[in-house]
Amino acid sequence: MNPTRGALARTGQYLALGCYLVFLAFPLFWLLSTALKSPQELGSVDPSWLPRHPSPDSFTAAFGQQPLARSALNSLIVAGCAAAVSVAIAVPAAYAMVRYRSPVSKAATGWILVSQMFPFVLVIIPLFMVLKGLHLINSLTGLVLVYVVWNLPFALWMLQGYVRAVPASLEEAAAIDGCGRFRTLINVVLPLLTPGLVATVMFSFVTAWNEFFFALVLLKSPEKQTMSVILTHFIGAEGAADLGPLAAAAVMATLPSLLFFALLQRRLVSGIMSGAVKG
Q1: What is the per-residue pLDDT across 213-246, written as a single tens digit (0 to 9) for each?
Q2: For a Cys-Cys bond, which of 51, 57, 245, 246 suits 62, CB 3.0-4.6 Å?
Q3: Are 229 and 219 a contacting pair, CB within 8 Å?
Q4: Measuring CA to CA, which residue among 268, 123, 148, 143 is closest to residue 204?
Q5: DSSP string covering the chain
Q6: What are phi and psi of 36, to 5 degrees?
Q7: Which residues neighbour 174 within 8 Å (Cβ) at sequence distance 6 or greater?
Q8: Rounded mean pLDDT of 151-180?
Q9: What pTM does this model have?
Q10: CA Rg value for the chain
Q11: Taking 50 as the threshold, does the pLDDT of residue 164 lie above it?
């Protein structure tokens, strides 16, 4: 291949990647810029890219108007518990569906696909009645159960691919050494599933953190509402938004997901390397 042509191709790839990163980062940049602007700048007909006089007044007003700290804690509890429970159920279930092929496992795979087609509005009424019978309306526990059920099909679908990638010969060798199925799953298969586990946890956490519809319907008390619901309180009855505090609250709602992703991204890379070595 011509070196000049190869250099031009790499330059084009980096340029395309840079444009894509700018496209992804611009909403967050504009959100942070809006949150740091003064009320006078927010009302200007000629908005600037950067705040001329950065001010934390919008953040102060946001925390003063709504219980952001409490709602963030509620979201953290719900998202963390939903992600942990979803993965804890999905790992052995995905292993069983891959290693024990039967009509039941095939039916479960079909259920995974069909369940993703149901819209939220279709299931909210029967779901509300079931949770009401269990006395879990206006309860973080009830919301966690809803998120676990909603995330579980995708978690199963994702982990099945990672389980299939684990060579069956490793399990056979462990069986020869006297390991049972459970011990083989924990000591042999689970370490090789690290990339899949991290990706599944990230998906489950972010989905539960950002979810709005179920939280709006099932949580009524302000002290139990999650961050996504509290954000709507910055919009008036006529649709007029308190732009500065809303942007500040949106920044606070975005940061935990970004930090969680940044934290687990390192584990994802290390898990891929570890899995490659062990495989």
Answers
A1: 999 999 988 889 999 999 988 887 666 777 888 8
A2: 245
A3: yes
A4: 148
A5: --HHHHHHHHHHHHHHHHHHHHHHHHHHHHHHHHHTS-HHHHT-SS--SS-SS--SHHHHHHHHHS-HHHHHHHHHHHHHHHHHHHHHHHHHHHHHHHHS-SHHHHHHHHHHHHHTT--HHHHHHHHHHHHHHTT-TT-HHHHHHHHHHHHHHHHHHHHHHHHHHS-HHHHHHHHHTT--HHHHIIIIIHHHTHHHHHHHHHHHHHHHHH--HHHHHH--SGGG--HHHHGGGGB-TTS-B-HHHHHHHHHHHHHHHHHHHHHHHHHHHHHHHHHHHH-
A6: -95, 0
A7: 183, 184, 187, 188
A8: 80
A9: 0.81
A10: 23
A11: yes
Mean per-residue pLDDT of the chain: 82
What per-residue confidence (pLDDT) applies to 2?
A: 62
Sign of CA dihedral 163, 164, 165, 168: positive
Q: Give the pLDDT score at 54.
A: 85
Among residues 201, 229, 202, 205, which one has the least CA distance to residue 215?
229
Q: Is the pLDDT of residue 120 over 60?
A: yes
pLDDT (tens digit per residue) in 68-108: 889 999 999 999 999 999 999 998 888 888 877 777 767 77
Helix 57-65, helix 68-99: angle, nearest 10: 80
Q: Is the pLDDT of residue 141 over 80?
A: yes
Residue 215 near residue 144 (C-beta atoms within 8 A): no
CA distances to 14, 38, 60, 168, 231 from 35, in Å: 31, 8, 11, 53, 14
Of 143, 170, 190, 201, the C-alpha closest to 279 is 170
At residue 57, does pLDDT exceed 80? yes
CA distance 262 to 60: 27
